Amino acid sequence: MTSIALPTTTAPRAVTRATGESRLVRWTLIAMALAFLALTLVLPLALVFAQALSKGLPAYWEAIKEPDALSAAKLTLLIASIAVPLNLAFGVAAAWCITKFDFPGKHVLITLIDLPFAVSPVISGMIFVLLFGAHGWFGPWLLAHDIKIIFAVPGIVLATTFVTAPFVARELIPLMQEQGCEEEEAAIVLGAGGWQTFFRITLPNIKWGLLYGLILCNARAMGEFGAVSVVSGHIRGETNTLPLHVEILYNEYAFAASFAVASVLTLLALVTLALKSLVEWQQRRSSYHPADPEALPERIVA
Amino acid sequence: MSIEVRNLRKVFGDFVALDDVSLDVPGGELVALLGPSGSGKTTLLRIIAGLEPADRGSIHFHGEDATDQPVRERQVGFVFQHYALFRHMSVFENVAFGLRVRPRRVRPSAAEIRESVMSLLKLVQLDMLADRRPSELSGGQRQRVALARALAVKPKVLLLDEPFGALDAKVRKELRRWLRRLHEEVHVTSVFVTHDQEEALEVSDRVVIMNEGKVEQSGTPEEVYEQPATPFVYGFLGDVNLFHGRINEGRVKIGEGELEAPEWADARDQAGIAYVRTYDVELRRVRSGAFSLEAVVRQVRAFGAVVRLELDLVDGGGTIEAHIPRGRFDGLALGRGQTVYVSPTNVRVFAQ
Questions:
Q1: Euclidean distance between CA atoms B78 and B75, whole angstroms
Q2: Is the Cβ pair B141, A189 closer than 8 Å?
Q3: pLDDT at A16 over 70
C-alpha cells in the first residue's frame, strides 16, 4: 500500500477519507439498498399497473366503473370521511392533554395510544365482533333494538377509527412537547380564553404536523384491510370497501379487474406520498430561520 | 398598584420551592427577586402571575385578594425568560394580541389597536420592525417585543422572569439601563427575577434575596449590600472572605489574631465565621496592629483600577482574596511568593 499522498495537496480529501468508508463498502451498500428498493417497492408498483392494463384500457375502465366497484369506492370515501375527523378530534385532544398538562396515568395514556399499532389488525376487528357481534357482549341488546354494527357500516367505521387512531396523536405529541407551553401561558396572561388560545396560538403552531398526521391517517383509513375484513361481512355493493373488493375479484380469478381496482388504491398512495412530501417541505420551511438571529445587527438602545 | 404576598408555600413532590414566603412590593416600585437557581424566585413570580397555584398563603393586589383569581383576570404583564413570542405572528400582531382577544364590548377598534401598538413599538424602539417575524429579530429585540406585548394590556403589575438571562453581556448592560428608564417612564409596579447580583443591585429600587424557598433579606440595594442580615446574603452579594474562629465575650479569635465583636458580648466560646469583603482588607509589608495575619502572595491580577490578589494564609487558614486600589498596590511593590500581613478593616461575625 503506497497511498501516502502529499499532505499539502490532498488535505481536504484526507479529512473525508478519515470519516468515510472505502469505495467498495460504499458502493456495495448503495447497490444493496437500491436492489431491495427495486424488488420490494418499484417492481410491485409497476406490476400492479401492468396487470391492470393487461386486457387493454377499455377493460380497465370497465372494471373501475362497474357498480360494485363504484359502491366500494363510495363506501371507502364515506368511512374515511368519518374516521379521519374522529381521529383529528381524538388526536388533537390526546396530544393537547399529554403535552400541556401533568396528570396521573399520563404514561398509561401514551402507551394506550400506541395499542392499535401494536396489535394485529385482525385482532382489532375481532375485538369489535366480540363486543357487538350477534354472540358478543352487547349483541343481544343491539339485536333487540334492531341496531346493526357488525357486518354494517358502523362496524367498519369503528374498526377503521381504531386502527388509525395513533397517526395524528403520534405526530403531534413530539412536536407539541418540543414547543412547550410558554406561548400558551403568554396568551392566557394576556387575557385569551381557552378556545382563543387553542385557535390562535396552538393550532397555527402545529398545523403542518397535524396535516401530515391527517394525510397518513387518511391513507391508512382508505387502505385498511385486516380489521375491516373481519367486521364487514363482504356484502357486495353494501359493506365492501376498495381493499376488500380487490380481494374478492382476485379470488374470483378476475385478475385484470382486481388489479385495475388495486391500481386506483395505488394511485391514491402515490398522491398521498406527494402530499406528504409537500407538507414535509412546508413544515421545514416554516421552522426555518432565515438568518441566525443573534448575528443580526442589534439596534443600539439609546 | 402594590403587591402583598402572605405566607406562601409551594411544594413540588419532595421539593419545597417556597416555604412561608411573605413579601411587600409598594406600588410603582421596581423590585428584584435575587437568588441562586432553585431558590424559588421563579416559582414565586409564577404564583404572583397566577400561572402556578400556591399550596398555602395568599396574594393581594392593592389590598384585594387575588389568590383565586384566574390568570387572565389578574391583569398582569409577564415577560418570559425565553420571551415566548408567538412565532407565527409579526411583531405588530404579537403586541396587538392582548387587545385583539378582548371580548367585543371592551375591545378597542382596529384603528385604536393600531395606534396603541405603534406607540408601544416606538417606546421600545422597534416601530421600524413591526412586520418582522420573531425569528428575524436579535435576542435583545425579541426581549423588547416581549416587553411591549406585556405592556399593551396596561397591566397593573409587570413581572419579568430572568429578563436578560439569555442575552450576551453587552446587550444585557444596555437593556438593563433601558429597563430602568422605561420603568421611570411607565411607572408600573414591576418585579423581576434574576440570579445576577450586579443586575439586581443596579436596576431595582428594592432587592429581595431568596435562598432555599425563603426570603433571606429585603431592602434597598444599599441596605442589603452594606448591612447583610444573614451569612448567605453576605456571601451572595459581592466577593467575600471567610475566617473561621471562636467567639468569646465580644471577641473573636482567628488564628493568632483577635478581633472586637461587641454584638457577641454574651457568647461563650462559640464557633463563628468572620465575613470580610475582598476590598475591606488592608495589606502591609510589616506586622502591625492587634489583628494581622501572615500570608504569601499566590497570584496577582494587576489590570484596571483595582488589583486582585490571591493570598495563602500561612497558618493554614486557606486562601483569601484581596482587592486593593492600584495606587496602594504600586506602593507595596508586591510580587508572587512575597510575604504580606492582612488586616481586615470591616468585619461581620456570624455564629456557626
A1: 10
A2: no
A3: no
| CB-based contact A296 B137, cutoff 8 Å | yes
C-alpha separations of B66 from A184, A188, B47, B63, B106 in Å: 21, 16, 11, 9, 22
Global pTM reads 0.77
Q: How far apart are CA B67 and CA B239, in angstroms?
A: 39
* Mean of pLDDT values over B124-129: 90
Record: contact B138-A291, CB cut-off 8 A? no
Longest Cα pair distance anywhere in chain B, in angstroms? 80
Closest CA to B77 of B187, B190, B181: B190
Residues A296-300 have a mean pLDDT of 39
Cell numbers at residue A119, please? Answer: 396489535
Residue B243 parent element (H or E): strand B240-248
Question: Percent of chain A scored above 70 by pLDDT?
Answer: 88
DSSP letter at A199 equals I
**DSSP codes of every residue in B142-157:** HHHHHHHHHHHT--SE
Chain B hits for A286, CB-CB cut-off 8 Å, are: 88
Cell of A55: 386486457
CA of B87 vs chain A CAs: smallest distance (Å):
8
Asked whether the beta carbons of A298 and B143 are under 8 A apart, the reply is no
Element of type H or E holding B341: strand B339-344
